[in-house]
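ingest -> validate -> predict -> emit
validate: passed (alphabet ok, no gaps, 263 aa)
predict: started
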Amino acid sequence: MRIAILVLCALLSLPARASTLLVALEEANNAPFEFVDSNGQLTGFHVELIRAVSSRLGWTLEFERYPWKRAILALELGEVQAVSFVAKNPEREAFALFLPGNPLHVSRNTLYIKRSRAGEIHYLPDLEQMARRWRLASPSGYYISEEVNAMIANGMPIAQPTVTQSHLFSMLIAERYDAIFGFPYSLSSASANIPNLDQQVQRLDGALISGASMYLAFSRAAPAQLAEDFAKAYQLFRQDPAYAALAQRFEVTELLPKPGEFK
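emit:
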């Protein structure tokens, strides 16, 4: 009860500016973060998180969906106040604010193997050793981590077939590869396309590879106070049980930023 009162007091102390927040999203199926559900409704972990925080601020919230490059251009030109699901880099920092309090999730990946090989294949934190010993693969175009990207750039034998994650699971089952990279939620997502997938494939014990933080990036052409107010309200929302419940609902608990990753 005391915690609830303290959180309420903190919320009441936030600036009461009446604002409209226009957020651009990529016009793609980025489930479980941003997607259109079977009822035609825009939803996902990012969408509902931004809605919850904006509601606490008393903001009117609007989403616009664009092709990715157009969304980033809209951010640069100040046509939108923010874009979701953005990784920080020096080029984008020239026109976008990446406040330490505004990462939405951290892109973590894992490795999957056939259940029948669980006694044979073991995770090695030294991924170069794994790549030399086992046939590893990642679907082309998927971000794993800077470490894995550097290994691929340096010629390490990590295959990148141009297939979907579901197709890559099928290739794993057929033993085209010994282990494949995927997101922690990939098995659940691909199960709709491959019957009994969870009975054939499992995550490799101990494998959880951290990648880039994904932000709600605010345009430098918008008032800086928008990004700061969002960060303050978002910090308070993370103390609310509704935050953990939202992550559970979309099966992204493992991808929540840890305290040291808000930077």
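The CA atoms of residues 37 and 188 lie 16 Å apart.
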